[in-house]
Design goal:
Layout lengths: L2 H15 L3 E4 L7 E4 L10 E5 L8 H14 L2 E8 L2 E7 L21 H12 L1
Parallel strand pairs: 3-4
Antiparallel strand pairs: 1-2, 2-3, 4-5
GO biological process, one term: tRNA-type intron splice site recognition and cleavage
Protein name: tRNA intron endonuclease
Pfam family, one: tRNA_int_endo
């Protein structure tokens, strides 16, 4: 399996099956970003980086990604595909704490300001 083809599609389906909305992570130097709700309503919490077929990641690459995530307020998830299984390693910092996929009403401060009022209105009904 090559990273850009089958492996990438497999990882995308995995996160979609968990209820995330999966989008390109190119702007953050990763393969994907994961949204708990519509990207118009919330910011993404996670960046996903897929390790290549050899299972090796250069320490400089992981250091660069790890140091970048607090600035983006994201948690880095490093993924390795082994056959039909996915191994995940999540790396959080105090600026981007690891959070489980929240339900929309629990998104809190991650809700984009112009959408927050609409979400609060829906929740009160």
């Amino acid at each position: 399996m090559e990273k850009e083809g089958v492996k990438s599609a497999f990882v995308r389906r995995h996160y979609e099956s968990l209820g995330y909305r999966v989008h390109s992570g190119l702007q953050f130097g990763c393969d994907f970003v994961l949204y708990a709700d519509s990207p118009e309503a919330v910011h993404s919490d996670f960046c996903v980086y897929i390790i290549g077929n050899d299972g090796f990641i250069d320490w400089r690459e992981i250091q660069t990604l790890t140091r970048s995530m607090p600035d983006f307020h994201k948690t880095l998830i490093v993924v390795q595909v082994k056959g039909e299984y996915i191994k995940e390693l999540a790396m959080g910092t105090e600026h981007a704490p690891f959070r489980n996929r929240p339900v929309p009403k629990a998104v809190g401060s991650q809700v984009k300001p112009h959408k927050k009022a609409k979400l609060e209105e829906k929740q009160s009904k």
